[in-house]
Amino acid sequence: MVIEMTERFEPKIVGFLCKWCAYTGADLAGTSRIKYPPNVYPIRVNCSGRVDPTLVLKALSTGADGVLIAGCHPGDCHYTNGNVKTIRRFMVLQKMLDQFGIERERVRLEWVSASEGERYARIVESMTEEIRALGPLNWKAKLEVAA
Amino acid sequence: MAEKIGVYICHCGTNIGKTVDCKAVAEYACLLPNVVVARDYQYTCSDPGQEMIKNDIRELGLTRVVVASCSPLMHEPTFRRAVEGAGLNPFLFQMANIREQCSWITEDRELATARAKVIVSAAVMRVNFNEPLQVQKVPVNPNVLIVGGGITGIEAALQIADSGKKVYLVEKEATIGGFMARFDKTFPTLDCAACILTPKMVSVGQHPNIELLSYSDVTDFSGYVGNFTARIRRRPRYVDEDKCTGCGQCEQKCPLSVPSEFECGLGKRKAIYRPFPQAVPSTPVIDREHCLCFTKGVCKVCQKFCPRGAIDFEQEEKYVDVQVGSVILATGFDLFDASRIKEYGYGRLPNVITSLEFERLTHASGPTAGKILLRNGKPPESVAIVHCVGSRDLNYNEYCSRVCCMYSLKTAHLVHEKTEAKVYEFYIDMRAFGKGYEEFYKRLLHEDVTFIRGRVAEVTDVPQNLSEKGKLIVVAEDTLLGIVRRVPVDLVVLSVGLEPRRDVVQVAHTFRISRSKDGFFLEKHPKLAPVSTAGDGIFIAGSCQGPKDIPDSVAQGAAAAANVLSLVDRREVELEPTIALIHEESCSGCKICIGLCPYNAISFDEAGKRAVIATALCKGCGVCVAACPSGAIEQQNFTGRQLLAEVEAICAQ
Amino acid sequence: MNRAYDKSARLVCGALDIDLAELNDWNCCGASAYMAIHELRAHLLSARNLAIAEKEKKDLVVVCPACLTTLTKTNHYLAEDSRFKRTICAGLKAANLQYWGSVKVRHLLDVIVRDIGENEVKARIKRKLTGLKVAPYYGCQLTRPFGEIDDKEFPTILDTLLKWIGTEPVNFPLKAKCCGGLLMMTNEDVALVLNRNLLDCAQQNGAECIATICPLCHMNIETYQGDVNKMFGTNFRIPALYFTQLMGLAFGFSRKELGINEELIQSQGVLEKHLEVIR
Questions:
Q1: What CATH code is carried by the domain that includes residue A56?
Q2: Quick one: closest CA in C to B348, which residue?
Q3: Contact present, B559 and B542 (Cβ < 8 Å)
Q4: In chain A, what residues touch B129 (CB-CB under 8 Å)?
Q5: Which residues pair with B97 in a beta bridge?
Q6: How many domains does chain A have?
Q7: pLDDT value at residue C15
Q8: Which residue of A23, B47, B564, C84 sits 20 to 30 Å from the alpha carbon of B325, by its own alpha carbon?
Q9: B551 and B592 share one domain
């Protein structure tokens, strides 16, 4: 992806949002007409525990500059403790990303409840700005470094 | 054979159309693989809109449908029904959210349109891999569980029980009646609370269809809509409910008096007691923290005098499991703890009291037999009523507690009626929104109450001049006069706000429901579904959903009852088929999935050396799906292939 | 007289083995009128001090509650507000500085009572101040807005210290009320009323002197007592002493060393009644 110096880099972030909390919270942000950067593209899942780390890697390797996984606050999971499993997987995933030289700011795990529209907007905003500052992911280059 | 996809971009009036160039998105969609038709339309969820989709299905032989409009949480069921009406399996439909998560989050038309295109392409790519699925139909158990026996729970219980269904009413305290049982007169009619409440309480106690489980709470809750199991803990009263006739001899003979919680500590009760005389059930309870038998091993006078031998010091905690099809949470509220606001001196200055303590003072059967008195037993010559204590305050609770303005007016009226005291009311706004409320306010305006508009800064006992000596001085800015006023009074009544109950987090976890930002239970939709929750079959009603007065609480109790009866009369309910299925051939028997399931739905088949899922128990979280290293488990309608298609579509742009 | 605060604080810290190092190239914390003129820049001034302290790997100790409040607020806002953080960090970067938010800011009173503790303080007492009735005056900013040091309305940390050094802290309900602060310059009438209330309350409760922990409070109470008397026809003559001066007296330092002879309302008469050498 060639970036012209005159054009501002727009990060592309894939978002996995759980339908009970995070997706509903994101909806609430829109219903409340809160304006925030449109850089996170939502994919709805039943629970953040459904998010397979290979999906995250697939996203990063096919053009995404970052991935956001958002679920219910610990203790509030509709399926009791799906989000706890997400935490465990996420920690292992982070170690893997470190080895690829992929900055930790690019893949985030956040808790957003169904009533936290404002919070969702702020998370998207801060994540977008952080990744914008880091620049495009350039997956191929990362793989060469790791090899 | 390639799929034939129809794509429909909704304008939703100007909601989407103002920000997203729907025509451009439709043109873009036309070019996507397998799309045979792409239209933009004003209101796709309308009848003609739905007809348009059905026609296309029939005439163009569509095999998949995508509608790009509002959130699936809004209209996914609507469009699924429409698609089904044209003979297509409802799960071959996919929705793209270009409103709540697109047109409403930005004002930049270019960005919004570009984003909409990405979202639509993700849905189109995904829908190729949607499979036809059948909903699971399950029967609905007609029994109902109601948690909370205040006025809301009582209303719901009576409505449902009168229709012939069985109700389990669980109440934490020793009696039903909730906060209302402690009130004296209720606004705006000045009805006596006990007079209108106690007949309903009696009806509940006597109703053949209501099983009242008082002094109990729900410790476990599992299942799914139509088929819940609740474990109820029955705490020991040390009095046998079946033998007790409520004669009250034990209470009379008990030698030990302790502060009464019902009287806010202003009056006393015995160690064996009923919270108040009209308690339902009328069986007393022994307070083992104070009872001399439990603490010192002596006395037992109550047992000696009980004509029915109902006292049982050996009674133990019991657990009861009930099967119900639906549950209504009517657990109520707690009052804001006024001691948190140090500036008001509650807990430090003896004549600063809360509104509930005032209710007990003015109540005819309260600790002062209905006389409004200071701690020294004398009547006050002046009274200040302070609004918004703990409410409308970023330091404590941001929201308005809705009832305090009205009950403050009632307090002023009662002081005026029962004493010669001068009354000052310190308010910010006067919220008199209900039927008869404004008229009640007008009445108070004529009752010689001095209204001062200003939030009280502090209540102090440090005098600045002789007239303030020995008084409580209320300091507030009178915003209408533009000066700071110091008003010396004898008694200060703090109109405390309403908060979620102290155990609300625990209850929310037990029933797996969410809470809103202010901590009260979260309703499915604030306008259109105020008593439903995101969990099917679980309803909320009354002030556990948000602060409200008695009329609204009763209305919500009845509304929840109607929702329940609608569910029960349907006899069966449909479950989303997003369950997990194991492809036997791919399962390597590694057992990783087994421990992960929160519902223990996965077991290991020793013979075949593979994991097996019990579909009746699977709720479709997908945790096992993500964990399987062989990719042997798939989640219906959320397969790896479907999600991957979305990812690829987003990243390819 | 604020020089006395500096002198007495250093002596007391020396006696307690508290290693005080003056912050290198420190600037004004911004807690002046500047905060009302350009809030962000005022916070940047605070952030500069914090950044320097972080570089020197030290926590900050202050004797002025206004400095305490401003520095603490800066820390809080940096942690809570990402936009604020970006602006401040950009400003610091322009001065070749950076700040990661690790510096703790404490008032000397807090350090002495909570970190040093009763035994260490009592061990250094060489003079008894028995029977000296002191009104502990906290001023409005020590405990507000965060209430992290002590209860916002009725703090007790100074009362505790005064008991440790052998004096008798009196009940002082207005202990955390405002002295008027800078209003003494801009709206003297209001400030004089506030000071009258404080002095009256102290006197009513039997105080012989007022212990202060803030240079501005000290100045208002002491310097303008004459004006209060003129305006209200009262005749207050209550000396104000910094808590470090009282501690210094208990630790055996001379009045000259502690700057007590520099005050406007002489405390000599009051102290004479109660000073008694132990060893």
A1: 3.40.50
A2: C154
A3: no
A4: none
A5: B69
A6: 1
A7: 94
A8: A23
A9: no
